[in-house]
Known about the structure:
Elements: H1 7-20, H2 22-36, H3 39-49, E1 51-52, E2 55-56, H4 61-69, H5 77-85, H6 89-113
Helix pairs in contact: 2-6, 3-5, 5-6
Amino acid sequence: MLPAIPYPEFLGLVTDWIAAHPYQSAFHVVNGVILVTPAAATVPFFSAMGFTAAGPAAGSTASSIMSYFSFVPAGGLYATAQSAAMGGYGATVAAGAAQVGALASSAVGYIWGRGS
C-alpha cells in the first residue's frame, strides 16, 4: 500500500518533476488531450491531407492518391479516411486509432523516461 502524501507536498513533487522533465511533461499533456478529445488530432490531420466534408480537395494529397489509384474500394483505407473527414463511420475508426496511438506513445515515453 502506498503511503499518504499531503497535498502541498504532492504538488511540490509534481512541479519538481515537471521542471526536471519539461519535454516529457508536454508530451504527456498532448497525449492526454488526444486521449480525451481525439478529434483534436484527427481533424487537423485529415484537413492537412485534403479530406473535407465535401470530398477530396482539389490539388491535395487526398486527390492525388485518388487519381493515382483511380479505384477506391468501399471500406478501404482511403474510403475510411474520407468517411472520417465527413463524420461517418470512419470518424470512430480514426478516433480509436488516435487514442491507441496516444496511449502507446505515452507508454513508450514513460519507459524511455524511467532512467532519467
